């Protein structure tokens, strides 16, 4: 997976309607749906929870197996395609994806659509992942 490609794919979702638990771009997406749709657009499948409650105690429900999904744990500075999990309140979390121009794409419940904004959405960073670097193939030896 390529972080810049993920960022660009997320940017194409700006303007999509917001819908809690949404995984269909025509009907609406939530923050997990934005990540799933962006990854699908670059040819990566990811299985993220659906039908979750607004308050979640276990962070592993948000990105259950980052390694298998093609991510590694990361820290600042942020790069295009980085995914952050923000703690927005007690038991409340939100995902955002760093775009290619140092902004953020995320599902904005208040505006009822997927938006791009210059600053990271408010909250405390609870997780930060980056696309795994592509491995160079080892030379084949007979």
Task: Spell out the key features of this protein.
endopeptidase fold (from Nostoc punctiforme); 142 residues; 6-stranded antiparallel β-sheet; alpha+beta; two-stranded antiparallel sheet
Low-confidence residue ranges: none
What's the mean pLDDT score?
86
CATH level 4 superfamily: endopeptidase domain like (from Nostoc punctiforme)
| CATH domain class | Alpha Beta
Q: Helical region count?
A: 3
Strand content: 25-35%
Q: What name does CATH use for the topology?
A: endopeptidase fold (from Nostoc punctiforme)
Distance between the termini: 29 Å
Please give a structural write-up.
The chain is globular, with a radius of gyration of 15 Å. The two termini are 29 Å apart. The chain is 17% helix and 27% strand. The protein contains three helices and eight strands. By secondary structure, it is α+β, with helices and mostly antiparallel strands. The protein has one domain: Alpha-Beta Complex (endopeptidase fold (from Nostoc punctiforme)), CATH 3.90.1720.10. It has helices at residues 3-11, 31-41, 66-69, and strands at 23-24, 28-29, 71-73, 83-89, 92-98, 104-108, 113-117, 124-131. It has a six-stranded antiparallel beta sheet with strand order 3-8-4-5-6-7.
């Amino acid at each position: 997976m390529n972080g810049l490609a993920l960022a660009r794919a997320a940017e194409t979702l700006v303007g999509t309607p917001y819908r809690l638990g949404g995984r269909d771009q025509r009907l609406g997406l939530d923050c997990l749906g934005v990540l799933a749709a962006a990854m699908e657009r670059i040819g990566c499948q990811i299985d993220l929870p659906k039908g979750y409650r607004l308050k979640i105690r276990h962070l592993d429900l948000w990105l259950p197996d980052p390694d298998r999904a093609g991510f590694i744990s990361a820290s600042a500075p942020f790069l295009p395609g980085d995914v952050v999990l923000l703690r927005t309140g007690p038991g409340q979390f939100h995902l955002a994806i760093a775009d290619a121009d140092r902004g953020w794409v995320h599902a904005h419940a208040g505006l009822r659509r997927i938006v791009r904004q210059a600053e990271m959405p408010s909250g405390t960073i609870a997780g930060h992942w980056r696309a795994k670097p592509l491995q160079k193939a080892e030379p084949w030896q007979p």
